[in-house]
Design goal:
- The protein has 61 residues and is an alpha+beta fold.
- It has a single domain, classed as Rossmann fold.
- 30% of the residues lie in helices and 30% in strands.
- It is built from 2 helices and 2 strands, in the order H-E-H-E.
- A two-stranded parallel ribbon has the order 1-2.
- The radius of gyration is 12 Å and the shape is globular.
- The relative contact order is 0.29.
């Protein structure tokens, strides 16, 4: 696990899981560097019951 992955581990929480179950979610991030933030968030959403998680980024570092 690299430093960025460690920085985002267990940082994000889903407040209202009932809004996620069986939904398709689009994560939007301004810059994709290592992908650690998007990976952590998408993992959480899938664990909460999201049907599908897609990712859109504006730029790649």
């Amino acid at each position: 696990m690299n430093g960025r992955e460690e920085n985002v581990k267990n940082v994000y929480k889903i407040q209202k899981m009932d809004r996620i179950i069986d939904k398709r979610v689009l994560l939007v991030d301004d810059i994709f560097t290592t992908g650690a933030t998007l990976n952590e968030c998408s993992k959480l959403l899938k664990q909460a019951g999201a049907e599908k998680v897609d990712i859109f980024t504006i730029a790649k570092d």
